[in-house]
Design brief:
3 domains, four-stranded antiparallel sheet
Amino acid sequence: MSAVFRHIGIRLWLTALLGVAVCTVLLPYWQRLAAMSWIALPVMLVLAVLFLGIGWVMNRVGHFLIRRQVTEAAVWERAGMLREAEAVFERTKSVYDSFWFSPVQRQRSGEFLAMRLARFYLAQPALGDIGREVVGSYLRMRPTDEAVAQGWLEEACRRQKATSEDHEVAALIGSAWSHHEKIQKLLADFYLSRQRTDFEAMQTYRRVLQMFQGHAREWVHGLCDLLLRIGHINDWTLQVYLQGHASGHERCIEGLAAARSHLKPNADNRSDLSAARQALSHLSDEQIDTLASRFRPREPAALPPTKPSARPPLTAILRQSSDRAIVMARQCRARLRPLAERASAWTRSLPVRLRWAAVVTLIASVGAWMIIDNWPSEPDTPEVPPPIAPLAEQPPVVVDPFTIQVAAYLKRDDAQRYVDRLKEAGVDAFWTQAKSTQRTWYQVKASHFATLDEARMYGESLKAKGLIDDFYVANHGP
């Protein structure tokens, strides 16, 4: 996961670095072609193209490095220099764990590298712990690889111990190669060597018996011993006991006696039961019952009696509701899963170039939508004119050219309150409105004067009385 984060971080850093340079060069041309409000769209397109392009280049470089080192390892392997080949594969792993690959390409390159490593370790005289881990990881990803699956099963049958991961890999191989005779035979040997009697193992034994007409005597005897140990008896195990009895296994007579005592004749087992009776013809009924006694079916354990309750408790009602919700959720998931699998399979079947074309088309569609949505249009003329805002309080008509400004506010109410306060103090105050490029100011002014000195002296007197904080002389007119 850290390699993915490093890959994305490097791609973002390079995208930002190259994007700034490219956008700086192209910005004058964009200003000529479009308004400033649309500059963000080409910038986003350039950054997206750079991000995808940098990812493609990094993936190509990483894939080239892995291919080259795998080719070098194959040369050492063909020459019989296994240590040198293994050292090259270690360097290949370091390239895979670096920052070159995106998440999608990382999975593909990982499968390719795991395939070559699995074949390399299976060619060794002993698989070893590292080899078993590598081959097992590859088979979890690709159990349909026939050569690797067969080689792993041959090695697993020779091994004395098996882990839970080995049984998991064996189950994946069995599901992928249910009709492959050689693999199913090896799988049955693996299960039999581990004395497995679960459903999956039993189905494998059954498939192997149906595939092969003649079986090794030791294998049939081992299967008979396993079935006799657990006391298993049905139509299929009857066929196994007959084969074991025909090949000289003495204990199979117990299985034949159990089949004669407990199996009911039907169209499928009638001939096998007849062969079992013929094999037991030299024994008396008492001897047959004694042999079949250990195969008696077990009676199901009786459930303890429960007292019916007049009204189910609240916990039981909540549990039933939750169970119903879980069942409904599982049913919905089961119905939607085929659709999701079909969509996923269809997406994976598309070529990589077609996927990238779909992504670029999506980005272009979003950009076109943004252009259309932000296209300037003529403002609609309102039918009813908006109400006219009240004009600023007009100062008295005077001819004196000077006045003093004592404050300026962004809100008209604040200016009016200050004017009222000055008027209460006996000052001839008023406010005027002045507009700048971005804001509208409400300037509070006081009195009017014929000369500049008179205005300054009056401002100093108001400041000395504490009525104002500061002032400056301004023109009385607009």
